[in-house]
Amino acid sequence: LQIFFDQLFPLRCVGCGRMGRSLCADCAHLLPHLEGNLCPGCSRPLGTNGGCQPCRTWPLTIEIHAPFQFQGVMRQAIHELKYRNHRSLAVPLGELLFDYWRSHTLSGDVLVPIPLHRAKLRSRGYNQSELLARELGKRGGLPVVTSALTRKKNTVPQVRTASIEERWANAAGAFECSSSILQGKRVVLLDDVCTTGATLDAAARSIVSAGASSVWGLTVARDV
Questions:
Q1: First to last CA, the chain
Q2: Long-range contacts at 165-172 (CB < 8 A, ≥ 24 apart)
Q3: How many CA atoms lie within 13 Å of 151's alpha carbon, on the beta-carbon side?
Q4: Tens digit of each residue's pLDDT (9 = 90 or more) over 42-87
Q5: 143 φ/ψ angles, rounded to the nearest 5 degrees
Q6: Nearest residue to 188 (alpha-carbon basis) of 153, 152, 224, 142
Q7: Which of 164, 120, 163, 144 is nearest to 218 (CA)?
C-alpha cells in the first residue's frame, strides 16, 4: 500500500522540492543546529551574561534536549508534518533525532510521546509526536508507550497564547498518568517543538507522580 501511494504521490523534499525524499540530504545538512552556549535545563541559547532568564522565572522540573532551531526548513518540515498530513516527514526527522541521540550518548528505558486530546486526535487523524517516537524507537531499540499518559484537558494550541504566563497556565493540569507501567522507568518525553517547555514540564510532573524514576524531554526543534 505504501509503495502504491509513493508511486501515486511521489515524495518531494519540503525544502527544495527535489523528488525522492521528504527531506533531501542537502537540505538536512543545512538545517539550523542548536549550538554554542546553551542552557543546561531548557537548551535555550544563552546570552553574554550566561544566565537563562526564562528558567529563573519559570524553572523547569526536567531537562529538555533539542538538536535544531525552529526556523527555516525545520519550521516548514514540522509544520508540514503537524498540520498538512505530510506523515512521511517523520522518517527523516526520526533519523535526525537518532543521530542526535547516538552522538550525545543519551539514555532512557521508554519513549513517551506527548499525547493529543482525543478530540484533536480525531480531527487530525494522527499524533505527530507518536510518529516521531516510533521512528526513534525503531532505530534505538526503545519501546514506545502510548497508553500511560493522557491529555485530559483540550488545551488551546500553545502558539495561540500571547505570553509565557499564558502558556504555563494553559498546560497546567493538562495531563494524567494513572498507569503503573512507567513505575521505576527512566522516561524520555518526546515532542516535536519546545517553546517555553511548559507542556513537557506539565506532562513530566504527571509521570513522576505515577512513580517514574526519572523524566527528561527530547524535541526535534527548539523555538529560540
A1: 39
A2: 167/195, 167/196, 167/198, 167/199, 168/58, 168/196, 168/198, 170/198, 171/198, 171/199, 171/201, 171/202, 172/198, 172/202
A3: 20
A4: 999 987 666 788 888 888 999 999 999 999 999 999 999 999 999 9
A5: -70, 145
A6: 142
A7: 144
